[in-house]
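Journal club side-thread
Mid-discussion, someone asked how the predicted structure for our own chain would compare to the paper's figures. Pasting it here so we can look after the session.
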Amino acid sequence: MRRPNVLITGTPGVGKTTLGKELASRAGLSYINVGDLAKEDSCGGSAPPNCPDPVCAAGELYEGFDEEYDCPILDEDRVIDELEDRMREGGVVVDYHGCDFFPERWFHIVFVLRTDNSFLYDRLESRGYTGKKLQDNIQCEIFQTLYEEAMESYKKEIVHQLPSNTPEDLERNLDQIMQWIEQWMKDNN
């Protein structure tokens, strides 16, 4: 039975991981958080969250370390190689804050989560984001950078924005995406 591939993207802090994990669980799909995959792959599964160690960041799915943003730099080509077979099989929910490097053929639908800046600021600040990193992510949301990136990277008809401010938004989004998945499976099996 064919199952769809779903991309959940948006600015850090909009709720991609919460939505992605719950969606995968409800729909019986695989879940891949690209940031976690890179950490596991490069550090043998032992990297602490937000591992700042440049030696660790030189692992398989990283190509360096960004001192300004205090984070590893993802090697996008290696990520594509790592995921290609799994994506070909179908039934995968991918969670990542960027989307322009993924092959268009991978996804049947793309959801860009959006959060009001008052909520987003508090979420990012509670994660320890400060200074330029905090301001750049807020500006990214204000200017709809990831929505525009998705619109330029995929067929417009498969890209959808969803509000992600409250637990009620989360439930509405899950219900809406589940309906879409059920219809897709009826239409494609």
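Post-session note: Residues 44-58 have pLDDT under 50 and may be disordered.
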